[in-house]
Structures are given as C-alpha cells and as structure tokens.
Amino acid sequence: MKTAIAVGGPASGAHDDFERVIAYACEAERLGVDSAWSAEAWGMDAVAPLAFLAARTQRLRLGTGIMQISARTPSMTAMTALTLATLSGGRFMLGLGASGPQVVEGLQGQPFAKPLRRMRETIEIVRLAFRGEKLAYDGEFHRLPRPGGEGKPLRLSQPANPDIPIYLATLSPKALELTGELADGWLGTSFTPEHAEAHLEHLRVGAERAGRTLDDLDLGVGGAVGFGDDVEPMIESLRPRMAFTLGAMGSARTNFYNDAYRRGGFADAAAEVQQLWVAGKRAEAATRVPDEMILQSTLLGPEKRVLDRIRKYRDAGIRTLRLDPLGATATERLDTLGRAVELVRQETEGSRTDSP
Hints:
Strand order of the largest sheet: 1-2-3-5-8-9-10-12
Shape: globular
Mean pLDDT: 95
CATH superfamily: Luciferase-like domain
Radius of gyration: 20 Å
CATH architecture: Alpha-Beta Barrel
Strand content: 5-15%
Number of domains: 1
Helix content: 40-55%
CATH class: Alpha Beta
Low-confidence stretches: none
Order of helices and strands: EHEHEEHEHHEEEHEHEHHHHEHEH
Structural class: alpha/beta
CATH topology: TIM Barrel
Number of strands: 12
Number of helices: 13
C-alpha cells in the first residue's frame, strides 16, 4: 500500500496558503509519502502548485486531484499533462473529474448535462494526444477540427507520452463503471471499508466490461488520521467538515458525495444533514452527523486502532491511502503524518513477509 496527501482545497488561494502547501508537501516527501494530489474547486487551480512542486521535490509523484473537464478543452488538458510530465521528470499523474452542477454551471458557465459522455470524449481525445496522433475526433460534445471552419487536424509538437496514467474522481454508479472501464486509477471519496462494495461493485462491472479486473486499477481513497485515546474531540472537529460534504458539495438535487454515503449505509443521516444544511441550519446539521459515519471514514484513535483501520482499507483492495493528518499546528500535523506513514510502511512490509 502506498501513501498520498492532498494539497489545496476549496478555500485555498492566499499567498500564505501556497507557502504552507509547499512546505507541507516537501516535508511529506521527506517522511516517505509517495504522492501529492492537488485539489481544484474554487480556490487554487490544480496545475500551478504541481509545477512549483516539481521543482522543489525529487521523488514525490504529483497528480491533479482533479482537473475539471469543464474548465479546459481536452486538447489543452493533454498539453498541460504532457508539460507537467516533462517538468516533473515523469512523475505526473492526470486526475480528471466532472465536478458538479454548481461549479460547472455557476463558476465555469458550462452545461453539466451528460457528464459521463463528456468524460469519455475527454479521455479519448487526451489519449490521442498522449500517443502523438493527430487530434481528429467527431463526438457529441467535442469535434476536432471544428466543422465548417479553417482548422485542420493537428498533432501536438510535444513528444508522445502514452505512459501518463489517467485517474478519475467518480462517485455515481455509472461514473464508477466508466472508471473501471477506462481509467488507470480511481480517486475515491465518501468511502468506508465497511461498505466498500457501494463503490467497488460498480468499478468491477466497468473493469470486466473492458476485459480487466480491479487489480488493473490503482484504487486510492483515504481520510483524516489522528492519534489519541480520546477520539471524541477528533470526531467533534470533523463534524462540520462532514456536514459540508453532505450538504454543500453539490446542489439540493445533485450531491454525488451525499448519494455515495447513502449507498454506503448512512441513508437517513445523509438525507437529514443535507436537508438541514440546505435550509441554512449548518450548526445543527453538523450535530446530526453520526459518530459512526466519521469513524468509518477516517483513521482515528490509539495506534492499535489506526493500524486496524489501515488493514481494513488494505483488505478492501485499496492500494493508495490518502492521509489527512489532524493537528493544531503544522508540526503536529506532520508528526501525525509521519506516524501514519510509518504504520502503513510496517503493515506493507509485514504483508510482503507473510506472503508465500
């Protein structure tokens, strides 16, 4: 099992945010973290921080978590990915996502309809570019060159690089099937190992449709990690974050994160928290988040329990564990991250020793 961190987020963007992101990622590399994934919502974009990190790190793999497909044309996505792969010495991973209607239609001014068709077309065009082929494509949403104009099919002047892996951040059943069919990896959220099949059964359907298995995908999920005998303060600190996910990460009609938790055994709680959040009762919404919802989606408690959680993720088939360390200061967060990385390393090495 490999380890990863996330950098950036919806509220990021200030100069101090960027400085903290860079310092955190560089120290994470020193601690042995395998990859860093840059968020893109309505704060920092997913690309610029990785370009800077490529110059400040040597080993850390760098992935967009995610580039919004509505914010760039497929050809520009391919150009950017090829550029980042070159700048990073081959350490780049392309993570794509459809986002949601509030961001796509409200921030990008693009229609959200048929996101899976748009995603499929984006991947197909990007892979044409990665293979060094001319970008000639006739899709429902993307047509290259534009009909009736003066354009002609063009080949990017950058060298071909078909080895750049493509990861998808998906949550709905059909989107998960698409991931299993087309992607090299999955950037999962709203996941608990106790209800892993709420996601994995759909990924498996897509993989089998393409003549593959789940072993062909790098399945990556994760959550907050914190050490201590008293977990209640940690749970309390995470309630507002979970309420935000259930209530704000989408519209009242379309919230893929909420839907995933409903499929994963928390239907009543997810519905209640969303209703309260949409009604403007955010503090009350946070109080209605069940303890078990947080405990099942995180790694909290004494070291023995955190290790048990790591094993549950591993046994569910997760190959990359994204760690979000808790702590009041940067030093505390890094100390927590270091302890968690060491536990993952010990468990991974122990599993190899136990294998026949």
